[in-house]
Amino acid sequence: MKKIILNPKCLVAFLVLTVMSCTDLTERPYDVLVESDLGGDAETLSALSAPVYTRLTDVLYGWHGYFDLIEESSDAIVTPARPNGWVDGGTYRNLHMHNWNAFQSQSSGLWNRVYGALNVLNNSLLNYQNLEGENIPALISELRALRGFYYYLLLDAFGNVPIVTEETLLNPEELPTQSTRREVYDFIESELLAVMETIPETKVYGKMNKWAAKMVLAKIYLNSEVYIGEARYQDAISQVDDIINSGLYTLESNYHNNFATDNESSSEQIFSVIFDETRAGWFHYHWKTLHPASSATYNLGSAPWGGSAAIPQFVDTYEQGDDRYNIWIRGPQFSSSGEPIYNSMDPTLRDTQLNYQNTMGSVDGTREYEGFRVGKYEIRVGTVGPLSNDVPFFRYADALMIKAESLLRTGNADAAAQLVTEVRMRSFDDPADAMVTGQDLMQGSRYQYGNYEDGEVIDLEGGDDIEFGRFLDELGYEFAAEFHRRQDLIRFGVYTTKSWFSHRPNGDHRTIFPIPQSAIDANPNLTQNPGYN
């Protein structure tokens, strides 16, 4: 009979990595277990890893979470100042303007939450390694793949981070050392390749499997030129080809099915994070984006905050007839019973119906009705608290688009266009409107980059000079508000070179975020990323 005991000393290494609460740091799946307590069935053993998945809800949509960090620093979504609105201390303005520093809440939150999750995950790995049984190798492989996913988030956001594993926990007196971006990249690749033969292939909703692990590999290969200066597009194609040829996933016939309240049966979701309004996570984007008066539209249990909206320059790039345009809530607004609802922030507008318009002032001052609101995920009428929609992180459409981009960048534009057309087909009534050619994808972007003030683009920079910009546009339409845009803009050379809304370029070092100052203060082995000293 094997005892599984978690040594409190194992937490020391993580104290220098995170500033999370003591409750978060000491939370473990179990304290002391024996093998007979668990039994040998796969379901019971698998439950041991549940906390490493529940942490994902906080990573993505905790307060100042990953959504804010990725989307608000990009060219599609912004949270501007609103009249009589909630004061955020300038945090969203800093993201939009690329003025963040080592104290930025969202980047610090990502660091803390991911390393907190890795603490739980590595402890779970230690537990599994003390057990025997036919299910154990698969469970260990699953956790190692999930660890690769967590490190993919760190690789993309920070580049140079400590690699902490279950072996690190056995030497808690040693402070973690910082690895280079190349070393982190190599670690993720080696971990994922090592588990491919033992990780489960079956679809278990909300859990890492072989195909989700291949998506992580495909992502690091797709972005390899950014991460390590080496192109690996053929490797990206190989990974997604395995997913495509598995036959396990298909495109939903209706694009919006992916984001419905009850979307767990979607045939398109490769890896999803499970939310539930009463039990799992705090999926709060409806509060973040809607005007307070829109509470009456959806019979919400509390009023939204004011909020986040689409940048008009991005909205203006959509083609007529593209159903994906309908993720934006727009136009005159009504209650659930059909009565007009009214502006309420500006006293002079309280007799005027709320009408979401595709205009904005500036990040420092925008009227309450300005900006289309984010409606990608169904907002269930009668929702009292957070939403229950599950959040797909990897979809089958993403696998197809990774292959398409890799083909495009390796000189096979016509084959890329066939895949892009396949993805577009469900979003246009007329199949002819959905078709694109390789020549189309070779064009620049439709986005009219430049300074934007009070409904007008001034000092126009345009998007014609962006290589494969038309493909970048397609990524924007398909994956708006899905944690994509920052990474895509960096890969296409836009993130630190173009202006949009009130944003102006502010240094190429902004392609990665600073290491949180709290982590550096706690660990002398950490060095700040270039440009942030």
Structure overview:
The relative contact order is 0.14. Helix content is 40%, strand content 6%. The termini are far apart. The chain is mostly helical. It has a domain at 1-199 and 503-533: Serine Threonine Protein Phosphatase 5, Tetratricopeptide repeat. The protein has helices at residues 12-15, 22-26, 35-38, 42-47, 50-61, 66-71, 91-97, 105-129, 136-157, 166-169, 181-195, 210-222, 224-228, 233-246, 285-289, 295-298, 312-315, 396-409, 413-424, 431-434, 438-441, 469-479, 485-491, 517-522, and strands spanning 3-5, 32-34, 77-78, 269-273, 309-310, 328-329, 331-332, 355-356, 373-374, 391-395, 451-453, 456-458. The chain is globular and about 70 Å long. The model is unreliable at 1-36 (pLDDT under 50).
Task: Give a summary of the structure in a few sentences.
The protein has helices spanning 12-15, 22-26, 35-38, 42-47, 50-61, 66-71, 91-97, 105-129, 136-157, 166-169, 181-195, 210-222, 224-228, 233-246, 285-289, 295-298, 312-315, 396-409, 413-424, 431-434, 438-441, 469-479, 485-491, 517-522, and strands at 3-5, 32-34, 77-78, 269-273, 309-310, 328-329, 331-332, 355-356, 373-374, 391-395, 451-453, 456-458.
Which terms would index this structure?
533 residues, Serine Threonine Protein Phosphatase 5, Tetratricopeptide repeat, 40% helix, two-stranded antiparallel ribbon, single chain, mainly alpha
